[in-house]
Structures are given as structure tokens and as C-alpha cells.
Amino acid sequence: MNLADKVVIVTGAGGGIGSATAQRLARAGASVTCVDIDGEAADRTAKAVTDTGGEALALGLDISTEADNETMVEETVRTFGHLDALHANAAIQRMGQLADSPTEDWEALFRVNLLGASLGIKKALPHLIDNGGGSVVITASLLALVGDQDMPAYGAMKGGLIALSKSLATAHGPDNVRVNTICPGDVLTPMVEEFFESQPDPAEARQRIADAYPLRRFAMPEDVANLVAFLVSDDASYLTGIDIPLDGGLLARIY
Q1: How far, in Å, are 83, 116, 233, 254 from residue 123 at the CA level?
Q2: Which one of 218, 231, 243, 251 has the lowest number of neighbouring Cβ atoms within 10 Å?
Q3: SS3 label, residue 67
Q4: Given this model, what pLDDT does residue 1 score?
């Protein structure tokens, strides 16, 4: 895939999926804005890009606020001249069944996982439209499509992203703006590793969950990054309003 001359914003770029995606996009020729609430993590990803000859801008911003989303987009356009795509990827995770979930957890998940993505897209859309079109790729989750008894709040926000994507794809198809979601299963990121370490027997939990996947492995951040690169590229120019399970065949199972 040739992404030369494309400019892409990646949120949550300091983490596993975001960092892998920023580097993958840069290897294909894109200029990348690496956004993370942890500014040092954003800097590390941007340095990984520039160390291999790519162009990157690092921004330490809180995407749960409208002001920082505006800064994210305006700084990108000021630095690179235009905007072609946004990978709305930043997220946090909280666990607990509904009866045990504090309201504060729901509010935090809403502000980052759902509102944050919405605000970023809202600020990016005028520039994508002015540029003749573009692509929005949203990291949702397999839990937007199926249930997990211990993650109702997380699943609710990720499900909201799918509804948002379909609405935006419908509204902005005439503007040549494509909007799609990726729904990964378990991806070996620090967030997932933290879950395994919280289990009574981390090794047993890891093996048991891996065995549930027909491919018998978890996704790597690079698996997600490759799909993002495709959806950003012109090779995906007729794909919009779709939700792609990146799940190693997990949804193909019945038992």
C-alpha cells in the first residue's frame, strides 16, 4: 500500500495498537501525528517513526476534551498542510459487572472511549471534506458485537462507536469521507497483559483464552495496524460503514 503524501492522526499513539499503527502508516509513506495523553509515550512513538526515516509530530493531549481535539487537528494541518485520515484509537478499560460498576467508571469510559472519538472526528471532518475526502478508522472492539459479563460499560461505549460510524458513513459518503470500525478480539497490548496478571493463575488464563481462538493465538498490535493501513489507503476506496471483526475466527465458533 502506498500512503505517500497522506497525513494521518493516530490517537492513543503511545500504546500498543496506536504505536504499531503510527509506525506502519509511516512505513507506507504517510506523515503521522502521534497523539497520547502521555506526552512522553507520544514522543517515543514519533521518534520510532523519525528514526526510520518517516515524518511524525508528537502531541501530548487529552482527547476527552473538545479543546485538545481542536488543537490536535489544527496542529496537524499547520505542520503538514492538510489531513487525509484519522485513526480514533485512544481508549481506557474498566472491569466490573453492572452492579459493581461505579458511576465514575461509566463517566470516564464515556468521556474517553465514546465522546473523545466523537470530538476528534467532529474536528477532523471539515478538513477531510476540504481535502476532497478521506478516511476515519475507529478502534471499536469485539465486545461491541458480543457480551462480556465483566465489561458492560466498556462494551456499551464500543457499541456506541459502531452506531456512530454507521451514522457518519451515511452522512458523509457524499463528501467522499469513509468511516469504518475495526473490532479486535484480544490484542497483546499492555492493557491485555494487565488483565492476565490480575488473574489468580495468569499462565492458565492466557492459555485458556488463546485456545478459544481457532487460530490459537492472540492478535498482535501489528495485525490491527495492517488493517488500519488498508482502510486508510485508496485500495479501500469503496468500503464505508462496515465493522470488521479482527478476531482470529472467534466469532465463527458456536461452542
Answers
A1: 11, 11, 21, 41
A2: 251
A3: helix
A4: 80
Residue 16 Rama label (left phi>0; alpha psi -120 to 50; beta)? alpha
3-state DSSP call for residue 83? coil
Are 191 and 93 contacting, i.e. CB atoms less than 8 angstroms apart? yes
Low-confidence ranges of the chain (pLDDT < 50): none
DSSP 14-57: TSHHHHHHHHHHHHTT-EEEEEESSHHHHHHHHHHHHHTT-EEE
Cell triple for 241:
460503514
Q: Is the domain 7-187+220-252 a CATH 3.40.50.720 member? A: yes
pLDDT of residue 179: 98
Q: How far apart are CA 17 and CA 190, in angstroms?
A: 10
Residues 6 or more apart whose Cβ sits within 8 Å of residue 99: none
Per DSSP, 187 falls in state: B
pLDDT in tens, 198-228: 889 989 999 999 999 999 999 999 999 999 9
Tell me the domain boundaries of the chain.
Answer: 7-187+220-252
Q: Any idea which residue has 526515516 for its cell? A: 53
The catalytic residues are 154
216 grid coordinates: 490459537
pLDDT recorded at residue 52: 94
